[in-house]
Hints:
Elements: H1 2-17, E1 39-41, E2 45-52, E3 58-61, E4 64-79, E5 82-84, E6 87-90, E7 93-96, E8 98-100, E9 103-108, E10 112-115, E11 121-124, E12 131-139
Antiparallel strand pairs: 1-2, 2-12, 3-7, 4-9, 4-10, 4-11, 4-12, 5-8, 6-7
Amino acid sequence: xxxxxxxxxxxxxxxxxxxxxxxxxxxxxxxxxxxxxxxxxxxxxxxxxxxxxxxxxxxxxxxxxxxxxxxxxxxxxxxxxxxxxxxxxxxxxxxxxxxxxxxxxxxxxxxxxxxxxxxxxxxxxxxxxxxxxxxxxxxxxxx
Length: 143
């Protein structure tokens, strides 16, 4: 019996000291561990932690689907197709100042949002408000 206990403790210590497998990442409670990067690029997707304290510009990502997981705060998310002052910032990215006749939805902590590739979107924040969210970005085209 004593041999089994010693063997178990030895195996537990060995596995605890082993390094994580390549690509295996855990952000406890949705936050990168102290000293870790705010963005991680994997083979086919990336994660990043985003924080806003003011309204953003309109963004449209032609080849990337984004899953947003709201951690804290609140904002109005606007989506639509008619981007005001649209400018291509790259062959697959469009930015603008607002969305004409967009659909507005309040979002807050706990909400999970799927933003399809190519759908213009914008976060609007009331003065003094903030929002923190994780972006999981998945490329919709092969590299």
